[in-house]
Each structure stands twice: as C-alpha cells, then as structure tokens.
C-alpha cells in the first residue's frame, strides 16, 4: 500500500499508482523563488527561449533574503525580479515588507494539503507540515518549472518518525528535531520523505510542525511531512480558499521505515559547530556568546516571540551580548506589536528588525566577525554560515536563546 508521498506524486503525475524509486513527471501546484535565487532562474528562463510562464497565478515571489537591499548587487537582484514580475504579470509578488518565504506561503494561503510545491530554497520542505509534498530545487530547474509547469522527480522512500511522550517544561519542537537529527546524522534520511507522527506531534501546533518539517533537509530529507488532522484543516480553511485533498500513509507500505522516538526525558538540545547533527543536551554545553539571533523560517513565529518575551520581561540582555529579534513576517510583527512583545524586547536591550532572513544566510543584518559566537534559532550552523568562517554558530530553541541572552552564555531557561 502507498505512503503519503507516493499518493501525492501519483496524483500529480496522473498515474493510478507509483512506488518509491519510480521517476515521475509531476505537475507543480506552487513554484516559489525569492530575491537571492530568483535572478538565476530568470536568467535560465530567458536562455531557454521561453515566451511565457506556464501559470502566473501559481508562481510566488517573496523578497526576504537581502531586504531592504544592502548592496548594489542585491538592489540589482531586486530590479531583475521586479521586471520579471511585471513582464509576466506574476500575481503573487511580495516586496520588501512581507517576510520570510516559508512563513509567507502558508500564511497567505498558498499551501494546502495534497499539493506538490517546489521552491528554489532548500527549506521549502517546511510546507509539508500542512500535508503537501514540498521540496527545494535548483534555480535552473525552477526555470523549467516556470516554462512548463512540471518537473521530474524520483519518488522517495519514507522514514516515519513515531514520536511519543509529553515534552518537559522548556522543551520545544526545536529540541525534538535537533535530537532526531543528532541521532540520524546529516545523511540519515538522504532523499527520504521524513514523516513526523505520533501523539507528541498530534499535540503540537501547526507552527511547531513547521519547525520539524523545516529541518528535515538537515538530515538529508527530500521533504518533511505531517499527516493532516483537524488542526491542519482549521489552519488551511482560515488562510486559504483553495481546494485540497488529504492523503495519509498506509502503514503496511513496503517503502516505509518506522522509527520510534520517546521524548519524555528530553532536555533542551544544542547543535554545536560546525554541523547541525553535532547535537548535545544543554547540560553538556558551557559556552559564552557574543550574539543571540531570534528569528528565521524555523523559529521566527509568534509562538517563538511569546516564549522569548516571557523570559525576557523585566530583564536585560547581558552587557557584552547583543540580541537581534526578527519576526518571520509583517503579520507576525504586527501581532507582536499589539501584544507588547516588541516593547519587552526593546526594553531588554534587544534590536528588533523588520521581517527578513537576517543573519541566517550570512549575507545581511547581523553577521558575526572572527572568533565571535552566535546562538541562533535558525536551522544551520555551518562554518561561515552567519558571517566570518572563524566565528561559531550554535542552534537552540527561542526559549534557550532568550535565557542565554540574559546570562551571556548558553543556559537552560530554568
């Protein structure tokens, strides 16, 4: 019997049934590119001589990586993309005031269950949290999608993580996924669909599920997925008017590998330099920090800001530590403003910036210098990821980031 991924890709390729290992030509429901990867897609699109895009209503272009433009090169990239949007009447264009692409797509109703979504960004797997098959592709592949509306894909096998147990206080979805990546290794799910299931996942919010699916790529996953339930349907019907179809995995599938994980005794987890799978429990980490970054497509959502503000309220960021807070979207920014969260951050001594990717890619606001240490709520800590190759990046949850900003070293919230 088929897995969730096999069912979605069978539908997208017009076949009754496909199996892991098959090569299919899948029709694409949503294609996303942004200001950093988009210009190469546009260049390739022009080189192949395409005269028009296949469907202007299915292309989504948010500006998020270098916004506002921080150099002449990034300003030129913005010009290239704005001209492409105008020339082909792209309906879903979000300029510099919208937010991070992987927050914008579900927030603006572009993601519903059962779709095939591709993005010229490796963390496009985020959207599997809503029951879609969503994956990152190269910029030149995106040019072909723009022109033809389809793409060849190999149907993946599935690693299904059955996660059980109640999370302790101050332990979050970020800790769960860091723990899984630490156990599996950076190549532990290479070209596999990573399904997250079990009672722990059922109890998680959509935002938390996005955290898990976002980081599936960090263990080599082709996509991350959570089977739709009532929470999914409630979210989708609030944000989108698109039709959708729900698919679930048959547990007797021959391409399914079940992995049981009990998180009852999990403590906060830290990914240490310079690999995401170099994960340690926080009790084993003793590290002073220069900078804290709260934000990104992984942990820049309203729930993250609330968790951090609860800890920072009435406190101050340590004297020799700087803290950057960057909400993942304008909508989140406004809600945080209404709730007084941003006031808490500013009064604590943090710098609150407009929605964007920030220092996550090492190309914009808040990069670190040689020998500096960043504690980040983002998804990657590779050497040079957030600035100098001689710096160090540690990854944590939003709550750990807030507590650590107060202490000037990595500490658990309690």
How much helicity do the residues have? 25-40%
Radius of gyration: 20 Å
Low-confidence stretches: none
Quaternary organisation of the protein chains: single chain
What name does the CATH topology of the largest domain carry?
Answer: Aconitase, domain 3
Keywords: 4Fe-4S, Amino-acid biosynthesis, Branched-chain amino acid biosynthesis, Iron, Iron-sulfur, Leucine biosynthesis, Lyase, Metal-binding
Subunit structure: Heterodimer of LeuC and LeuD.
Enzyme class: lyase
Domain Aconitase/3-isopropylmalate dehydratase large subunit alpha/beta/alpha: 7-408
Give a verbal description of the structure.
By secondary structure, the protein is α/β, with parallel strands linked by helices. The chain folds into two domains: 4-245 and 253-260, Aconitase, domain 3, CATH 3.30.499; 270-407, Aconitase, domain 3 (2-Layer Sandwich), CATH 3.30.499. Helix content is 31%, strand content 19%. The chain has helices at residues 4-12, 38-47, 72-87, 101-107, 139-148, 173-184, 199-202, 206-214, 230-239, 296-299, 302-312, 330-338, 341-348, 398-407; strands spanning 23-27, 30-32, 59-62, 92-94, 116-119, 133-136, 150-154, 157-164, 192-197, 223-225, 256-262, 269-271, 279-281, 291-295, 322-326, 351-352, 373-376, 392-395. The chain has a five-stranded parallel sheet, with helices on both faces. α2 crosses α5 and α11 crosses α13 (341-348). The longest helix is centred in the first third of the chain and has 16 residues, at 72-87.
């Amino acid at each position: 019997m088929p897995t969730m991924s096999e069912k979605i890709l069978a539908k997208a390729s017009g076949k009754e049934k496909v199996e892991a290992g098959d090569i299919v030509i899948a029709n694409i429901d949503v294609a996303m590119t942004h200001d950093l990867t988009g210009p190469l897609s546009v260049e390739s699109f022009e080189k192949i001589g395409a005269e028009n895009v296949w469907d202007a209503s299915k292309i989504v272009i948010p500006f998020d990586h270098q916004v506002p433009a921080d150099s002449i090169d990034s300003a030129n990239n913005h010009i290239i993309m704005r001209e492409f949007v105008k020339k082909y009447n792209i309906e879903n264009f979000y300029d510099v005031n919208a937010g991070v692409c992987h927050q914008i797509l579900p927030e603006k109703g572009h993601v519903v269950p059962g779709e095939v979504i591709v993005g010229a960004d490796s963390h496009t797997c985020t959207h599997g949290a809503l029951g879609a098959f969503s994956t990152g592709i190269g910029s030149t592949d995106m040019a072909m999608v723009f022109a033809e509306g389809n793409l060849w894909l190999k149907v993946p096998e599935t690693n299904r993580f059955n996660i059980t147990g109640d999370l302790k206080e101050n332990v979050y979805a970020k800790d769960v996924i860091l723990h899984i990546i630490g156990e599996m290794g950076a190549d532990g799910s290479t070209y596999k669909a990573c399904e997250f299931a079990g009672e722990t996942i059922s109890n998680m919010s959509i935002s938390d599920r996005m955290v898990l699916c976002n980081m599936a790529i960090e263990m080599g996953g082709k996509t991350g997925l959570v089977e739709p339930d009532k929470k999914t349907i409630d979210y989708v019907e609030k944000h989108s008017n698109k039709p959708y179809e729900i698919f679930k995995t048959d547990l007797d599938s021959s391409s399914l590998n079940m992995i049981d994980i009990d998180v009852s005794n999990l403590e906060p987890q830290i990914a240490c330099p310079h690999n995401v799978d170099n994960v340690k429990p926080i009790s084993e980490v003793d590290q002073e920090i220069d900078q804290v970054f709260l934000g990104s497509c992984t942990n820049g959502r309203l729930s993250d800001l609330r968790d951090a503000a609860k800890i920072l309220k009435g406190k101050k960021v340590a004297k020799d530590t700087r803290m950057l807070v960057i909400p993942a979207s304008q909508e989140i920014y406004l809600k945080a403003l209404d709730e007084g969260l941003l006031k808490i951050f500013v009064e604590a001594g943090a710098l609150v910036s407009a929605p964007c990717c920030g220092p996550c890619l090492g190309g914009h606001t808040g990069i670190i210098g040689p020998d500096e240490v960043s504690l980040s709520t983002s998804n990657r800590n590779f050497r040079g990821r957030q600035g100098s190759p001689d710096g160090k990046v540690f990854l944590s949850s939003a709550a750990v980031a807030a507590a650590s900003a107060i202490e000037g070293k990595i500490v658990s919230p309690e």
